[in-house]
Amino acid sequence: MRTITSGMFQRIAQQLAPEWQAAHDLYEVAFKFVLSDSRVHLPIVGMRWPDEVAHNVAIVENFQPSYDMAALPRLTAGIYQSEDEMGQGG
User: Fold this and answer.
1) Degrees (nearest 5) of the Cα angle 58, 29, 2?
2) Residue 80 maps to a domain
3) Parent domain of 75
4) How far apart (Å, rounded) are the C-alpha atoms in residues 65 and 76?
5) Which residues contact 60 (CB under 8 A, 6 or more apart)?
6) Which of 10, 69, 79, 90 could pair covalently with 37 via S-S, beta carbons 3.0-4.6 A apart?
7) Gap between the Cα atoms of 13 and 21, Å rounded
8) Count of CB atoms situated within 10 Å of the CB of 25
9) What is the pLDDT of residues 4-18, one digit of tens each?
């Protein structure tokens, strides 16, 4: 997969967790993150070579997200609401 980050994603990942990048495919992690959001209907993924297409198709065919990222904002808002209510005695 080609990105428009000019290597920034890889450099930031290397600085944040150098050992993690060696154990994980950063492109696959990013792709799965996008696929984990039910609000995304069509991820736009750049591919240059047939093996990249095959790899991405395999990810999509075999990936079942464990969590819907679309639910996160609602859950976060609920957490803050609960904290606010507790702070007001109720």
Assistant:
1) 75
2) yes
3) 8-87
4) 19
5) 35
6) 69
7) 7
8) 13
9) 566 787 888 888 888
Q: What is the pLDDT of residues 49-81, one digit of tens each?
A: 999 899 999 999 999 999 998 887 666 666 677
Residue of 82 and 8 predicted with greater confidence: 8
Question: Any idea which residue has 């792709």 for tokens?
Answer: 31
What are 4's two structure tokens? Answer: 């428009």
Q: What per-residue confidence (pLDDT) applies to 61?
A: 94
- What is the per-residue burial (b if ≥16 Cβ within 10 Å, else e) of 52-90? eeebbeebeeeeeeeeeeeeeeeeeeeeeeeeeeeeeee
Query: How many domains are there within the chain?
Result: 1
- The pLDDT of 32-42, averaged and rounded, is 92
Tokens of 8: 């920034």
**2 domain-assigned:** no
